[in-house]
Predict the structure of CRISPR system Cascade subunit CasD.
Amino acid sequence: MSVLLLRLAAPLQAWGDSSRFTRRETRPEPTKSGVLGLLAAAQGRRRTDPVEDLAALRFGVRVDQPGRIIRDFQTAIRISDGAVMPLSYRYYLSDAVFVAGVEGDAELLRGLDEAVRAPAFPLYLGRRSCPPAGRLSLGVVDTDLESALRDADWQVSRAYRKEQGQTVHLDLLADASGGLPTDDQDSFTVRDVPLSFSSERREYGWRDVVRLAPVAKDNPDGHQREDFFAALGGA
């Protein structure tokens, strides 16, 4: 089994899985549907093209830098008749960094890796106003999803490292499939498996997600004072 790793970093990201009407939420970590949408765009797939092969990939994400949620308040007027449109709120993640992984067939993943490095369509992190910053693909590794996410380097700046303690604990979430037990772990269900990206009728299925034991990383650049929040992922 192989895993394609992606570094998801940008000034703003937005990963909605249940937004409706005038309030557009973001989850605190990337969604599977959002990341698979990015991969489909990289390959040049149209919205009506099938995505069953991508949906079958197992997905996981590591929270390297949680960022913070900010709110954008928007107003609009319809150009045709000047009517005032409903007020809307859009939520974003600011200054967050994640490592996401998809596990599956090696040949498919290597094709996706090449597509991400030379995408057919512009790529964005959940919303078109959120282009990725810096290197996106971390390459394909031949191991299982959890090992790949645990072993990947911590993808944050030195300035951020200095703000943390000498040991950090990174949140780790993954699809419950693949034999992972859910009885003794923090788990939840989200409607986050893309069945169709068609603009006329987007469809999503459900998936079970488990929150695994955090990934502990040594941080030689960190401070030595007591950090009571280290076990929660740092400041």
